[in-house]
C-alpha cells in the first residue's frame, strides 16, 4: 500500500511539474500567446497553487492525462486552457454546497436567507449564494448554489447540518455536495442497483410467507386433543417423579450465609477453602442489605452439599435457603362460589397433572373465592409453586378444568400500596411518612378530605407518576389500575418472583 501511494504521489508531482513548465513558457512568451490564456493562467492557476496546493495538484494531474488523451492535435495552449478549466471547476466544487428545499420568496435576498440557515446550526461563514435551475410549476423551491471560503468550511457545514432536523424553520431543508454530472450519474446508478436488490429480497421473503400461508393448518380442536394426549403420556416429566427430581436438581439455587460477628464465625477465606475442597461451582456471590452473603450455585444438589459441609465445620454458623416467593394466579369464570376445600379437590380431581406434582412436594393453596365485577361468575385466587405455574402455562395452556367449566388462568401480581403516602410495598399501618398525600390531587392532605375531586373540570394527579416523571403523564388518580407507576411495580414484582423460582 505504501509503495502504491508513493508511486501515485510521484506521478502527480511529475504531472504538476509539466503544468508548471507550461505556465512558465506562456508567461515568458506573453506576446505570442493569446491574452485570454495569460489572464486565465495568472488569475486561476497561480491563485489555486497558492491557496489549495493539494486539491489543485490532484485535480491537475487527473485532468492533464484526460486532456492529453483527448487533444487530437491541439496546441499546448489549447490543452492548457482545458486543464485550467477542469481544475477550476473541481476546485469550485470542493468549496460549494447545494441547498435544497429552501422556499423562494418574492424579492428575497438569497445570501441573507442562507446566512440565517447556517446561523441556525451555529455557523457564520462568508459565502456567495445564487438560485440555479428553472422555476417549477407548483412549488418555487429551486436549489441554491452556495460558495464558501474554503473546503474546511464545507466540511464543518456537513458536520453540523444534521441539526437542521430539529430546526423549526428549516426542518425540510437539505444540504448536499456540489457533484459533477458524471458523479451524480454514478450515485444514481448505485442507488437504483441497491433498490433493485432490496425489492428482489422482499419478493423472495413474500414468496416464503405465501408458501407458509398456503400450507394446511391443524384445526384448533385437533391441536387441543393432541395436547391432552401428550399431557397424559408417561413421557411427561410431571408424571415421572424420578425425572421431576432430575429437573429440579439442575435448577440454579441460592444459599444464604448469615452475617456473624463472633470470633469462630465463618470468614471469606474459610468459605473459599470449603468451596474449593468440595469442588463446587459458584456462579456468583454478593451481599444483601443486612450483610448476609448470598451464593448462587449451579444446582440444588450443590447447595445441599455446601450447606452440609459448612454446618459440619462451623456448627454455630446459620446457613439457610432463601424463602421462596410463590406466584399467585387467578382462576376466572367459576360457575359457583365454591368453598376453598371443594375448589381444591375439584382441581386435583379434574387436573391429574397438578395432583401428581403436589404429591411430589409442590404447593397449591386456595386464598379466596370472590364474585367477578361483571356477570354472575366468580374468580379464585390461588398461591402455587413455580413448577405448577409452569405446568399450567406450558401443558394446560393457562386453562383449568373446574366443575362443568374450562376456566381461564391469569397471573396475579398484587402490589401493596399505602393509602396514606400512596407509595408501594407497604400499607398504612407500616407508613413512616411525615405527612399524608392525597390520591386524587397529590397534595398534602388525606384522600378522604380532598375538596377538589368532585369539582367540574377537575383533572386528577398521580403522585407516584409525578415523582417518577413518567413520560406518559400523571393525569389519573394514584388508585387507578392503569397507573403507569403501578404497572411498573407489577412488572418489578413479576421479575422478583421469577428470579426466585429457581432456588
Architecture overview:
By secondary structure, the protein is α+β, with helices and mostly antiparallel strands. Among the domains are: about 90 residues, no CATH class; about 90 residues, ACT domain (Alpha-Beta Plaits); about 70 residues, ACT domain (Alpha-Beta Plaits, 2-Layer Sandwich); about 70 residues, no CATH class. The protein is built from 16 helices and 13 strands. The strands form three sheets. A five-stranded antiparallel beta sheet has the order 10-11-9-13-12. A hairpin with a 2-residue loop joins strand 12 and strand 13. Helix 13 packs antiparallel against helix 14. The two termini are about 60 Å apart.
Taking strands numbered 1, 2, ... along the chain, how are they ordered across the largest sheet? Answer: 10-11-9-13-12
Label the overall shape: elongated
Please outline the major beta sheet.
5 strands, antiparallel
Percent range of helical residues: 40-55%
Strand content is 5-15%
Determine Rg (CA atoms, Å): 40 Å
Number of strands: 13
**N→C terminal distance:** 60 Å
SSE pattern, N- to C-terminal: HHHHEHEEHEHHHEHEEHEEHHEEHEEHH
Mean pLDDT metric: 75
In DSSP terms (H or I, runs of 4 or more residues), the helix count works out at 16
Unreliable stretches (pLDDT < 50, length at least 5) are 48-57, 217-221, 230-239, 499-503
Classification by helices and strands:
alpha+beta
